[in-house]
Write a structure and sequence with these properties.
Methylamine Dehydrogenase, Chain H; 4-stranded antiparallel β-sheet; single chain; mainly beta; 1 helix
Length: about 325
């Protein structure tokens, strides 16, 4: 009850201080069968599908009707989902078995399984190299997989606890090292580490998003800070306070809004005024423990997994 009261107070204080609306409201609450935990949500805006990690499998929803499409089984300890539309394949990290599951985007059937490092977590598709990069949290390494045939292109030793990752489609992949408070940039073609940048005053970075046009990275950190970094130099150009237990950050290039989902029960929202300046808007109330989300770049909808009284829901927020 104390945690709930604190989270509610934080949202109310943000509203009073900012006085500017993020213009989002709860539109739907989609019940999905089964309990258990969850992690990343991936929205395929072009394919109109939403992939929700759910304990031992992935639930797939229609992004428009919100109706269930199917389930991808055999992914114990599932964390991240990446899609490569050009080859019609998707890739899922199954952290419980140290593998990446490759599936067909149309049929949702498993094509192959690739053994990677220990506890693979975040994953990103890089069109420039036609590879997906699976971040192995238990091995402190990244495994690069060729999307065309599922072969392993190589393994990169990163030497730290890995969290979120993003790719720009131009040959760069970034990943957070939460235990060292570093941001690492990788060349996706040579699979070499290009830079290791500190993110202070952020500490324990756990989420990451990219503004590809303005070359800005948004780093959500567990010390209640969101930092804005220059994607090419690593320089921290701005930082702002956020709430507790951030786990996902997303950027909408059309609305210029930055979202960070917080386990305390809200989404912190910032409006990009310039690449180096941001205005905090009203937070979006969600649910306690709802620490991840997915953003649909087509209709600007947010998908937020939540567990309440043993029931697993996806909270759907629409922009007014």
């Amino acid at each position: 009850m104390k945690f709930l009261a604190t989270a509610t107070l934080a949202v109310c204080l943000a509203t009073m201080l900012n006085g500017q609306s993020s213009t989002y409201k709860l539109e739907s609450k989609v019940l999905l069968p089964g309990g258990g935990g969850w992690d990343y949500v991936t929205v395929d805006a072009a394919g109109r599908r939403v992939y929700v990690s759910h304990a031992t499998h992935v639930d797939v929803m229609d992004a428009d009707s919100l109706k269930p499409i199917g389930t991808i089984d055999g992914t114990p300890g599932v964390h991240g989902i990446a899609v490569a539309p050009e080859v019609g394949r998707g890739f899922i990290t199954a952290g419980g078995e140290g593998k990446v599951v490759i599936f067909d985007l149309k049929s949702l059937k498993t094509i192959a399984e690739v053994s990677v490092g220990k506890k693979p977590d975040a994953i990103a598709f890089d069109p420039a190299s036609n590879r997906v990069f699976a971040m192995n949290g238990g091995s402190e390494s990244a495994t690069a997989i060729n999307v065309a045939d599922g072969t392993i292109a190589g393994t990169i030793d990163l030497g730290g606890g890995l969290e979120a990752t993003v790719a720009d489609g131009k040959g760069n992949v970034w990943v957070n090292l939460d235990d060292q408070s570093l941001l690492v940039r990788i060349d996706s073609k040579t699979m070499k580490i290009l830079n290791r940048w500190p993110v202070a005053p952020c500490a324990s970075p756990s989420s990451l998003a990219l503004d590809a046009q303005n070359r800005r990275l948004f780093v959500g950190c567990r010390n209640h800070v969101m930092a804005v970094a220059d994607a090419d130099t690593g320089r921290i150009v701005a930082h702002y306070p956020i709430g507790d237990h951030v786990d996902t950050t997303a950027f909408d290039p059309e609305t210029k809004l930055v979202f960070s989902s917080l386990g305390e029960g809200s989404i912190a929202v910032f409006r990009q005024d310039t690449p180096d300046s941001y205005t905090a808007l009203d937070g979006i109330p969600t649910a306690t423990g709802a620490k991840t989300m997915g953003l649909d770049l087509k209709n600007h909808r947010l998908f937020v997994p939540s567990l309440s009284s043993g029931e697993f829901h996806v909270l759907v927020f629409d922009r007014l």
